[in-house]
Design goal:
Distance between the termini: 28 Å
Order of helices and strands: HHEHEHEEEHHEEEHEHHHEHHEHH
Largest sheet: 5 strands, parallel
Strand content: 15-25%
CATH topology of the largest domain: Rossmann fold
CATH architecture of the largest domain: 3-Layer(aba) Sandwich
CATH superfamily of the largest domain: P-loop containing nucleotide triphosphate hydrolases
Number of domains: 2
Radius of gyration: 20 Å
CATH class of the largest domain: Alpha Beta
Oligomer: single chain
Helix content: 40-55%
Structural class: alpha/beta
Number of strands: 11
Shape: globular
Length: about 325
């Protein structure tokens, strides 16, 4: 299994320098049938990363640029009347693919963002009276620019909850950026080769279910989740007034699956508390709704998750 993972990462790193967390997060989402929300300023290789994965995996990739005038039918497709045959034909939208990049998703209003809800959860799209399955594998990677303040819309909570991970991408180090400039100015980026097929992807997705999770580890995961809902019961009384809404049951499932994926990527057959800590912030930070008091004190969801990790005893 590790050969598959190593081969994928080797190919992707031909065009991506650094950004290990982003690469691992896309891998985690891929092998657990999850989706990923990526936040970062322009130019940090978010689009390049998902495109590189599509080439290494040999699957179809499509990109939707979200804009204020986008319509739901521009994403999922629509019925078009055929005058010659006096009937409606279905024209499928770009969502019918394997890897879908929803670029700058927060530039479109909630009605358009919500067009992705069904396909992200059910892996199908309803157009008229018919439902159509999308590709397998299927992964949505949405990006949002945290800098823009005008012409952007907040993602609905129901939409956020369907993303397994939220990854905040930061600038490269000076050494990494030196390497980027060096590659561009001298030899250019290498060609990415397909290293696995869809059958191998299925094997990875099945293998993650074989990663063992001890009962105590599972209880530890649930304590982390419940601490976001009832902090006063877990020695975090001071944070009770900062959390408006805690993580949902879907977060419990996603943290469980993401932890197993981390263990698999690291070549292990069992989950440890370290594996959980590796992904806990990315699984939970977009699912915690803060109160006004927290915002006023510049407390972030990441701060709360880190405090929970430091307070709940590990098994």
């Amino acid at each position: 299994m590790n050969n598959y993972i190593t081969d994928i990462k080797t190919e992707v790193k031909k065009v991506i320098v650094g950004q290990e967390e982003l690469i691992d997060s896309i891998l985690i989402a891929l092998i657990t049938n999850g989706h990923i929300l990526v936040e970062g300023v322009p130019g940090l290789a978010k689009t390049t990363a998902i495109n590189a994965f599509s080439k290494a995996l040999g699957v179809e990739f499509k990109r939707i640029q979200f804009t204020p005038d986008l319509l739901p039918s521009d994403i999922v497709g629509s019925q078009i009347y055929n005058q010659k045959e006096s009937n409606f034909n279905v024209k499928k939208g770009p969502v019918f693919t394997n890897l879908l990049l929803a670029d700058e998703i927060n530039r479109a209003p909630a009605k358009v963002q919500s067009a992705l809800l069904e396909v992200m959860q059910e892996k199908q799209v309803t157009i008229g009276d018919n439902s159509f399955k999308v590709g397998d594998p299927f992964l949505v990677m949405a990006t949002q620019n945290p800098v823009e303040q005008e012409g952007v819309y907040k993602l609905p909570e129901a939409q956020l909850d369907r993303f397994m991970l939220k990854v905040v991408v930061n600038y490269n180090t000076i050494e990494e950026e030196f390497e980027i400039v060096n590659r561009v100015s001298k030899i250019g980026f290498q060609t990415i080769n397909q290293v696995i097929d869809q059958q191998a992807i299925k094997i990875l997705q099945e293998k993650v279910h074989q990663v063992h999770v001890d009962d105590e580890i599972q209880r530890y995961i649930l304590k982390l989740i419940f601490a976001t809902r009832e902090p006063q019961n877990y020695g975090l009384e001071q944070y009770s007034s900062y959390i408006e809404v805690g993580a949902s049951p879907r977060a419990s499932i996603d943290l469980y699956n993401a932890s197993r994926a981390v263990a698999l990527i690291r070549g292990k057959e069992y989950v440890t508390p370290l594996d959980i800590a590796t992904v806990a912030t990315n699984v939970l930070q977009h699912r915690i709704v803060l109160s006004y008091q927290a915002t006023a004190k510049n407390i972030t969801p990441k701060d709360i998750v880190q405090k929970i990790l430091g307070t709940i005893p590990t098994p």
